[in-house]
């Protein structure tokens, strides 16, 4: 980790990458597996890895997702090649004997109140979801991350009988650059950050 990525790589990941509302093309199962094999390296508290990913790709699976979508997100989600449901497992600590074998990390969480588990699961699952976006961009995919859906409906349809809860969705594919707005501004350093 001793050198910066080339400028064109930084463009692809950050500077020219956009949130897309219209996505086409095809995304192979092999690409989705490659995507996961990159994002799985996201850092998480005690290597908890609470995120769970459902790659909604088939027409049948898309139909299951459709009733949970807000009207403004319905068409773009139904026409995207893949929609990823990023969730987090509230029972993440059950995997810690495998994921964090050098300490009894499971005992740190298995008697925690639900609110404390939610904080750890949501924070770290969101971090893994952000890594999914960067991994997708690094593989040449465009992304359309979004809220705007009924979490309870998604949970009932895709995670019934589990402790997994949905967080956000990401559409994946090849973006239609003619369908995006001009880039919105971002806060400058001095308004968003400080060096102490």
Automatic annotation (TrEMBL):
CDD domains in the cross-refs: RutE-like
Protein origin, superkingdom: Bacteria
Domain Nitroreductase: 27-157
Keyword Oxidoreductase: yes
Record's keyword annotation contains Flavoprotein: yes
Cofactor dependence: FMN
Single GO molecular function: 3-hydroxypropionate dehydrogenase (NADP+) activity
InterPro entries (alphabetical): Nitroreductase, Nitroreductase-like, Nitroreductase_HadB/RutE, RutE-like
Stretch forming the signal peptide: none
Record EC number: 1.-.-.-
Keyword annotations of the record: Flavoprotein, FMN, NAD, NADP, Oxidoreductase
PANTHER family according to UniProt: MALONIC SEMIALDEHYDE REDUCTASE RUTE-RELATED
Record-stated family: Belongs to the nitroreductase family. HadB/RutE subfamily.
Family matches, as NCBIfam families: PRK05365.1
Protein name: Putative NADH dehydrogenase/NAD(P)H nitroreductase ACFFGH_19095
Source organism of the structure: Lysobacter korlensis
